[in-house]
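for the writeup, i need someone to sanity check this before i put it in the appendix. the sequnce is what the collaborator sent (i think, or maybe the updated version? ugh). structure was predicted straight from it, no edits. if anything looks off just tell me and ill rerun, i have time this weekend
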Amino acid sequence: MTALCRSFLAAVVLAAAAPAWIASAEPPAVAHRLVQPTLAPMLEGVLPGVVSIDAVSEGASAESPMPADSLLLRFFDLPENSPPQTYPTQRVGSGMIVDAAKGFILTNSHLVDRAIVIAVVLSDGRAVQAEIVGSDPETDLAVIKIEADGLTEIPFGDSGQLRVGDYVIAVGSPFGLGQSATLGIVCALCRADLGLDSYEKFIQTDASINPGSSGGARVDLDGAAGAATGAGACLFAGGGHRARRL
């Protein structure tokens, strides 16, 4: 048998044994594609229940830094004994809707303390004003109320069932940038002696939080919509610094 015949027979055998998709130049559908783990379905139910909060409060009185006999005061013909001026202060944080029917939102007390105007931005971009229903500085929790339709509430979980090592997701509006979700674990339970509140029983996590995350939801992985296990209250900075409010 010549070399040409052998090559022809080999080509015929390979063509007969090749899968049909090679002949058609179309790859087959992957029947058993790997399913990647994701928190997206759970967060789709949680994110609508987290809001951004912008609170304007009466600031502390501040006296003029110039002495009463300052040449600048006389030059600009300003009064020498002018009363202290009060400047408003702005705080940006987060909150979670806990009662959609009544419009109740849980947040941190220090965020809305002495607020004269509270603006709430919902996940769909709507901005509404809120009023304080109640506040407890001892636990740094507050409830505010808004009037809006189509709200989504986040159910409460049982923080007593948490264990060190459980996954937890922090959802809030860091730096006022809108909704953000970060993943971490429970690092410690019943954390106290931080010098922040009279009653301290914090859940410590390593989920990334930043200023503006205060009052946001901390949710576990239980249930389709998650379950709130706490509200962000403070972060601990290294270098010998104490815990501070967000």
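Confidence is low (pLDDT under 50) at residues 235-246. The chain is about 15% helix and 35% strand.
thx in advance!!
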